[in-house]
Amino acid sequence: FYLFIPLIVIYVGWINGFNFMDGINGISVIYSLTTLASIFLIYDISEHLDLIIFLGLALIVFGFFNIRKNAILFLGDVGSVTIAFIIGYLITYVIYHSGNWEYILVLSVYGIDVSITLIERMILKENIFKPHRKHLYQILANELGYPHIIVTFLYSVIQFIFNLILFDYLNSDKNLNYIIIYIFS
Known about the structure:
The protein has eight helices and no strands. It has 185 residues and is mainly α. Helices cover 69% and strands 0% of the residues. 28% of the residues are buried. It is globular and about 40 Å long.
């Protein structure tokens, strides 16, 4: 019961963070597919296989219209919040049934970007409830001119590689304090 309130706060934060990150073509579609693939690969979630497959297929079809230089369709708030809710549910399910809270790290690239941006804006005394263009992906795509697709795949590839390392790590006898050493060894 005592974990319920912090869990709700984290869950609402995840949903809002995911919504914030949906700002360039394809990023939430590819990141979601990466997350679903990671969940499928790292944990036996056969009870929710239909959900993963249907969401994955929907993302692939939607991606045809979104993962391009001039996107035809966008997720908007309803799409990104819905996807975040489903992915949040799946990660919560995995954490609960595995007993490994470390599985939250499957969402770390988005989490790090959102956290750093939020902290930076608070340090600068900016209103965190007003729109901005300060996320790393926005700087890469909008300020530095990298193509949206390159930034999108950069985020997803980094997350997927980290997820594979995490999976290997969680299936070894290592202590979490040594994860940094493990990653770079």
